[in-house]
Amino acid sequence: MSKITKTNSLEKVQEHLKAECFNKLFIGGQFVDPIDGQKIPTYYPATGEVFHALPKGNANDIGSAIIAAESAWLDGAWANMPASDRGDLISRMAQGIEENIEVLAEIEAADVGKPFRQAALVLGGAANEGKYWGSLGAVLDAEQDIPVNSGGGVGGLPPAEWDVVYRRDPIGIVGLISAWNYPLNVAFRKVAPALVAGNCAILKPSEIAGLSCMFLGKLAQDVGIPKGVFSVVTGDRETGAALVASPSVSMVSFTGSSMTGTKIMEASAPKLSQVALELGGKSAMVIFEDTDIERAVEATIKGCLTNGGQICTAHTRLIVQEGIKDHLLKKLKNAFEKIPYCRDPITERQRGDRAWENGITDVIQPVVSASQHEKIVNFLNEAKAAGIKIYTGGRVPDPSDVENLGGYFIQPTILTNVPRDSDAWQKEIFGPVLSVRSFSSEAEAVTEANSTAFGLASTVMSSDPAKAMRVANRIRAGAVFATSTGEGLLAEHPAVSRGGFGCSGVGRELGIGGLHEYTELKSVNYSGFSIAEAKENFNHG
Ligand code: NAD
């Protein structure tokens, strides 16, 4: 058993990262060095080794990107071209992702510490989703000049001949700030609709793991997105804060923690600019005693350990009916203790995140960073001190269990005796930690599910469809899964909008509603001549 070194898997990733796009900012259609030349190191979570350094843009670099975006916005060519043409360019960017999945998945495996197989599967999803966004360009064109009123109306004094149509305009210059857990997916889910809608966009990926997002600059250049319409400025939270604070930025679309979401809302308030916030969660897995026990085990594992528990919709609260509690917990403990560690995510091509397909032969990846690791360890220590029972796991694995790699591993953990008002029940941990409570009645199950400030996703499992439906309808979350099998848990479809209730967010992503988030609805009120007359001469102005 040899220690992973730069001579094997990381070396290959470092070759990929020699490309210009992974070493420079993308501003005004060019790859440029950050003004003050600073860099941010990136670490391989499986070993803690530094393997790259990405440019650290500062407020001045953000200023350069804003100047480029203002110039593109004032030029107007981008906002005025048919959305279907913009959609075609986005579809070509999506194609570019598809053609480079192998490289991008190796980069994400190194950057996030996720198994290559999972990274490749999910990046395939980003490419498909990008094609969906591309196809919405034509839908947006068809939504322009939709008649909403004709020949007057009630209230006010409408003219005798009065034709009103709706249009959807782009918002202007938008700031896109993304998280690290699914780096390219999260970023492209913002970039694609923002651009299809006709905005000029500046992306600030996460400094913790944002390398794959930098490839979007190259794709934009390759497909011919006009200069200044799209920029990528890597950097830290101060870089993000400079983007949010700019008076020229009319909207910020953010994915990240609820704490940062609050700061972004505060910073946007003085200029009354728009925010779309995709934030944290503490999703509930409600399991009734009529559920098939093996299905319940598999779904619970998938729900809470996918991506090492580092997913906003991670089902980290198990709410189980009394009658099967002990049986389910024993089986879960057994399964958690058998899950092997993913020691080299870059080369992990067989396993990863598909507990459903592969039973409990899945792997548990390291968490993303030393600081996240420390945060989780402290959290577990505090939970123990507060009298919460560590049913299994609860600490860093023995070095020998992870081949002395020195990476950021945490044992998959189950906490029981968890009070409803404890941090273990209320706070997002973002690691492989499951907190358990039980219920006896349907009403109690709903109360437990709705007992945090979050509301991103939740699942109810039962073999009784009517009961599952009753409970699903009462759970307050943006996406609720009602299932007897667990199939489709955590699944997304580009046409199905998602977002958060409560502290989990503001606004919706995906679907036509997700595109509309990047537009302003405008009514144009015509009187004294017909719309047809106006259209006839439209292009002769
Ligand atoms: P984070 O809030 O620490 O950082 C996210 C991004 O915000 C980074 O790019 C960071 O540099 C930037 N940032 C930090 N402070 C800022 C500030 N004051 N102004 C502007 N930008 C700032 O979150 P994270 O650790 O990168 O991601 C994990 C979080 O993201 C979890 O809470 C998770 O639930 C959430 N998440 C939500 C979704 C969703 O769709 N709801 C998806 C993925 C992740």
Bound molecules: nicotinamide-adenine-dinucleotide
Mean pLDDT value: 94
Radius of gyration over C-alpha positions, nearest whole angstrom = 25 Å
Sheet having the most strands: 7 strands, mixed
User: Percent helix among the residues?
Assistant: 25-40%
Provide the spatial order of strands within the biggest beta sheet.
14-15-16-13-12-17-18
Q: Please tally the helical runs, counting DSSP H or I stretches of 4 or more residues.
A: 19
Task: Choose one word for the global shape.
Answer: globular
Q: Structural class of the helices, strands and pairings?
A: alpha/beta
β-strand amount: 15-25%
Give the low-confidence spans. Answer: none
Distance between the termini: 73 Å
The beta-strand count equals 22
Describe the overall structure.
The chain is α/β, with parallel strands linked by helices. The strands form six sheets. It has a seven-stranded mixed sheet with strand order 14-15-16-13-12-17-18, with helices on both faces. α8 links the parallel β8 (200-204) and β9 (230-232). α2 packs parallel to α9 (237-245) and α4 (83-99) runs antiparallel to α6. It binds nicotinamide-adenine-dinucleotide. Nicotinamide-adenine-dinucleotide binds at residues 177-181, 186, 204, 206-208, 236-237, 240-241, 244, 255-257, 260, 263-264, 278-281, 312, 428, 430, 456, 500, 505.
